Amino acid sequence: MPVNMVDISSKDVILREATAYGEIKLKKETLSLVAQGKIAKGDVFTVAQIAGINAAKKTAELLPLCHPLPITKVDVQLGLKEGSIYARATVKATAKTGVEMEALTAVSVALLTVWDMVKQYEKDDRGQYPSTAITSIIVERKTKGELK
Asked: Is residue 116 among the annotated active site residues?
């Protein structure tokens, strides 16, 4: 079966926006260290936010059939919830195709960055991660509209 990118040549350039969401479940003790700014690798939220922004911009390099898009805005927010840290990314572009993959990639990489930064606190005595899990990665919203 042949593999091809979808032909979007005939589509109009319009404003596209998508928001994705996800969570990483962490130990209560780890969440407390994050909240207190006591993670050895540094500011978890800032590093994960920057990683998510970079990931959105590199989505077409990571996902082989994604079109490279002229992204006009990436907003990545992280915060604490009961038992987890959440990430929410909104991506905008004026393009011929949507930006939901860029938003999903931003959330995924932001959460992976959180895991990398806190992994020393999450390991059990065998070096495993029995309570750490990235969950609930979804597209919350996707819109498209005409340019004004």
From this structure: yes
